[in-house]
Write a structure and sequence with these properties.
CATH topology: Growth Hormone, Chain: A
Strand content: under 5%
Largest sheet: none
Helix content: over 70%
Number of helices: 15
Structural class: mainly alpha
Number of domains: 1
Oligomer: single chain
CATH architecture: Up-down Bundle
CATH superfamily: MFS general substrate transporter like domains
Shape: globular
Order of helices and strands: HHHHHHHHHHHHHHH
Length: about 400
């Protein structure tokens, strides 16, 4: 079908594909954040949120790693339809309210979370020029913040006024509308090509390890992803339990963080494009997220409301703002006929960070506090930043 290979006719328009893939990420993010945002009203404990997140990434890791071949054969927009369908099923399960249902919902959402970024990278990489790649990929990655901001503002109010089940129903309705959009656009991007040969496990791993720059990107992405998922899933609980915020205030602080991430994804992408220095931008981002997490974890309650909201925005600017530059850098360094497979293989390392973070946070929360967990994540992010800087200069050459 489409995507990661040279097309036999001129590429279709960029903007409809960009809008579709951005909306896909927004809905995936909205679904993934929903249990954490409504947790105080739905009486969901931290260990249950950790179990939910672990289930997502336990499925999402192999779905991302092996999804490149399906993307090349079915097309990115057909994969997007399957992702949206998995979200609908997952939200229906989460609405049942039991621990087992929440676990099953996480497993379903893993089928949506895993393939969506490789599918987007494979489609957009062939539609955008090299000069605009970092910015366009950063725009696509704003879907995460769009979904998070909408969820942070709307879902707590829906949970309070109508009940948590209505939150999940709203997310499912958004996914159903997205399927209509994806299927309307799909014929325009479904170009018949010869699929590339299948890759075995060793060949997929070699896509990451053969280039030290890609390998260091994968390594640094693990603590960066761990920081991001922790911000998204347990920040509301941190705010209500340790920062002295009400549920609504904590939701507003998380919305500030996600708004910061939205600005960050666009701003960092534009900066990387103008300076032609993606790796240096990622190093700055890593230092910023480590600082914010350490400050909130060690002394967040003493900052006051204004300080807490400001640090939350800066936290989101960094911890939720790095992904676009990261994905664009993978697409630049990857073999151009293997962008989907390379992206999926590198994201496997990122998802290992996502998988480990909930368990680490849960353990540290039980042994000490959520503040201690965020400080530990800050130390890991700093180590990842050092690895990224050591990985080599950003030559930014075709």
């Amino acid at each position: 079908m489409v995507d990661a290979n040279t097309a036999i006719r001129p590429a279709p328009a960029l903007l409809p594909a960009l809008a579709a893939m951005t909306s896909l990420q927004a809905i995936v993010a909205l679904a993934m954040f929903a249990p954490g945002v409504v947790a105080p009203r739905a009486h969901i404990e931290v260990w249950q949120l950790s179990m939910f997140s672990c289930a997502i990434f336990a499925v999402g890791i192999p779905a991302s790693f092996w999804g490149g071949g399906f993307i090349a054969r079915l097309g990115s927009l057909r994969i997007a339809t399957f992702c949206a369908a998995a979200i609908i099923v997952g939200m229906a399960l989460a609405s049942l309210g039991s621990t087992a249902a929440l676990l099953a919902a996480g497993l379903c959402l893993g089928l949506a979370m895993g393939p969506e970024t490789p599918a987007s990278a494979a489609l957009l990489a062939r539609l955008v020029t090299a000069e605009r790649r970092a910015f366009v990929f950063s725009v696509r990655q704003t879907g995460n913040q769009i979904g998070a901001v909408c969820g942070s503002l709307a879902l707590p109010a829906i949970a309070i006024w109508l009940g948590p089940a209505w939150c999940y129903a709203a997310v499912g309705a958004c996914a159903l509308l997205a399927i209509v959009l994806f299927e309307r656009l799909r014929p325009a991007y479904a170009i018949k090509i010869v699929p590339p040969p299948k890759l075995d496990l060793r060949a997929r791993l070699a896509l990451v390890t053969a280039d030290r720059r890609i390998a260091m990107l994968a390594l640094a992405s693990m603590p960066f992803s761990a920081m991001q998922v922790s911000l998204n899933t347990v920040f509301v609980t941190l705010g209500t339990r340790e920062l002295g915020l009400t549920h609504i205030e904590a939701g507003m602080a998380l919305a500030c963080a996600q708004a910061g991430g939205l600005v960050g994804r666009l701003g960092w992408g534009y900066l990387a494009m103008r300076l032609d220095a993606s790796r240096a931008v990622l190093v700055v981002i890593g230092l910023g997220m480590a600082f914010c997490a350490a400050l909130l974890g060690l002394d967040g309650a003493s900052l006051g409301r204004t300080g807490q909201f400001a640090i939350a925005a800066l936290f989101g600017l960094t911890a939720s703002g790095w992904n676009g530059v990261f994905i664009a850098e993978i697409a630049r360094l990857a073999p151009q006929d293997r962008i989907g497979e390379t992206t999926g293989a590198v994201l496997t390392a990122s998802y290992l960070g996502l998988l480990a973070a909930p368990a680490l946070v849960s353990i540290l929360d039980g042994a000490a506090s959520l503040g201690a967990a965020f400080f530990t994540l800050a130390c890991l992010a700093l180590a990842g930043t050092v690895a990224l800087a050591w990985g080599g200069h950003d030559t930014a050459k075709k």
